[in-house]
Design goal:
about 375 residues; alpha/beta; TIM Barrel; seven-stranded parallel β-sheet; three-stranded antiparallel β-sheet; 10 strands; about 45% helix; globular
Length: about 375
Amino acid sequence: MIPMRHCDRVHAALRHEPVDRVPIWMWFHPAIASQLAAHLEIPPYRLADAMGDDIRQTWVGNNHAMEGIVHEREGDSHTDFWGIEWVKEGDFNQIRRSPLTNADESAVRRYAFPYDRAGDLLAPMDAVIAVRGDYFIGCDISPCLLEVLFRIRGMEDTLLDLAAAPETADELLRKAADFAVYLAREACDRFTLDWLWTGDDVGGQQTMIVGPQRWRESIRPHLAAIFAVGKQHNLPVAYHSCGAIRPIIPDLIEIGLSVLNPIQCNCPGMEPLSLKKEFGKHIAFMGGVDTQELLPRGKPEKVFRETRRLIDGMTSDGGGYILAASHSIPPETPLQNVFAMYAAAGESHEAIMDRAATIRAGH
């Protein structure tokens, strides 16, 4: 098959059509990203180019405050447009103060989302749009609902609200939803996108953080409104949630889901091939490569074999799958295991090294 452009490869896969190779999009822990970049002798920000990844995307919601602002020194901090104070602890920013922790109902009602900073929030998309034409372009507005409440109110207070003060929880969920819809519309109107990326981590390692019925009552209607923005712009809608979310996958499909990520395969009900068999006619999947055992502890031969088995099973209908890990690739992963995973998708170590050499020459 003639090599495809990155964007065409992803579009074809989402239509469940055959591709020259399975699309790839990986997330790396900063430490292993630095190791890989050093091995390839390229700047870390060029890693996706060298590895052959097909998708380019950035955050425009609160995830940018968490991951997009990078501090050099331990303990450095910033306060985002939501009033959340973040501090660098290790490789990531962690929440030091949430603006509505221990706040009463009147403070919750007065709380305002940062509509006036939409231009600043959307600005990082300019660099992504600059490579449109070859790569598949996404815009990430997540977190959208429950996880936003965890950040601005605190997880404990949010869960207490859901149990004992549903009016307070519903008020904040409505505000979060209204802002997510606004941000999605602004992004879809301003930029030519290939998909709209949404999400909230609503699953734990064993079960959902909020029960499926409570999720359906309090969260599903708002999420449907957010999905509708992408559908109104004729875009696939991707949804990210870690953990065991099997009970709500039919709901997500009913409200317009196109792509589910990251398929945390060690959680109950999230075995990728089983999900493919049950839901593969309705949605595409992204993820499923085990980051708890296989990648950090497996031998390269096993990584290659298991990744190949996953790809074959997830593309049994000709497509419908994007290769990715079930979480960020952890720092203890041997580099040879990363290359074995890519080789299983058709991207050899030699091809990656050749692209790195081209990057070095241009850099």
